[in-house]
Amino acid sequence: MSDSPFKLHKNANEKEGGALYRRQLLKLASILPVTGVIGPVYARNSVSKHSDVGAESPLQDPWLSLDAVQNHLFPASESGLSAKQFKALDYLQSKFERPLADHEEQQFLFQGVGWLNDLSISDYRRRFAALDYAEKEALLQKIVKSRAGENWLSLIIDNLIEALVTDPVYSGNPDGAGWKSVGQIPGFPRPQAQDRYYELGYQKRQRLYRQNDEKRLTKG
After folding, report:
1. Which of 1, 92, 118, 124 is most exposed by smallest CB count within 10 Å?
2. In angstroms, rounded to a whole number, what is the distance separating the alpha carbons of residues 88 and 166?
3. Rounded to the nearest 5°, which phi and psi values hold at 80?
């Protein structure tokens, strides 16, 4: 097994690592003035029961592990939505299927899943999705102490926020549930499927292609 970029360097500061993790969680908490969803992330550190995320899931890695990380960071609570409820994974999958998707971002997320599971197997002899809550929390606290781990977790949180507040036409935030949970009023007019920004870009390119073809035919 190769040395994971998520492993803590010997000269890394333990207190600094904890602060990094809290900073990432506060980034997520900053958009939740209504629900206070982030509370369970701190309150459940001592929970030791096994998670049911991925227990009977049809997902395969890397999506299985990404789903488990998303739902650990944004768990179900009485006061707000979970990542699963606002379709964070659906949003992420849809995002990478779009024309002109950022495949470097996708590659980094997928590589990070491999690094995460390497470390999980090394520490617990199980992949991340099979860990209990306390083990997942400890592992995430550990990886965020590395630069690669902090960047990876930050990217996941950025996409969680996007999924929570995006227009439902982009596959997250079903029925505007995310907007309601954070007290956000969407802008109008709302986009339709054919008005999604990447669809408009595709339509514009097609018009340019047709115009260029017409010019060539006219010159011919």
Report:
1. 1
2. 10
3. -170, -175
